[in-house]
Design goal:
The protein is α/β, with parallel strands linked by helices. It is built from 3 helices and 8 strands; from the N terminus they run βαββββαβββα.
């Protein structure tokens, strides 16, 4: 198989509001927009928003996402935290912190129950360093 692209499509009850969130707070740009589907791009990365009740979603699967965390790795998580955490429209659900497994991160609530984990990789503790596989 020759994969040419791979990107998440998040189902939403309000496609316009969800797309606006990713545009306004994260910096995505719209590459396609309709009332039921929006395709977004940030550099080489893509994300799409789809109306959860659209006919292209198979019957029985037209529910909003639950338990979805989208990781967004950045070069300076402190700067992103400073930019977002002070905004009243942004709900920080996990404060900025360091993890022994090699992340400095914080989590914000995105539309439709999705969590956005904004991460800067950092050196892991000794306990976790051996868990990383070198290619």
């Amino acid at each position: 198989m020759s994969v040419t692209s791979l990107y998440p499509v998040l189902m939403s009850r309000d496609v316009d509001a969800a797309a606006s969130f990713y545009r306004d707070f994260i910096g995505f740009e719209t590459t396609f927009e309709s009332d039921w589907y929006v395709s977004l791009r940030l550099g080489e990365f893509e994300l799409a928003i789809l109306a959860h009740d659209h006919s292209t979603v198979p019957a029985g699967y037209r529910e909003l996402p639950r338990g979805v965390i989208v990781n967004l790795e950045v070069s300076d998580v402190d700067a992103v935290h400073k930019q977002l955490a002070g905004r009243t429209e942004v709900n920080v659900v996990l404060p900025l912190r360091d993890e022994d497994f090699g992340q400095r991160h914080f989590i914000i609530a995105a539309p439709d129950g999705v969590l956005l984990d904004i991460i800067q990789p950092v050196a892991p503790s000794e306990d976790y360093a051996s868990a990383y596989v070198q290619p």
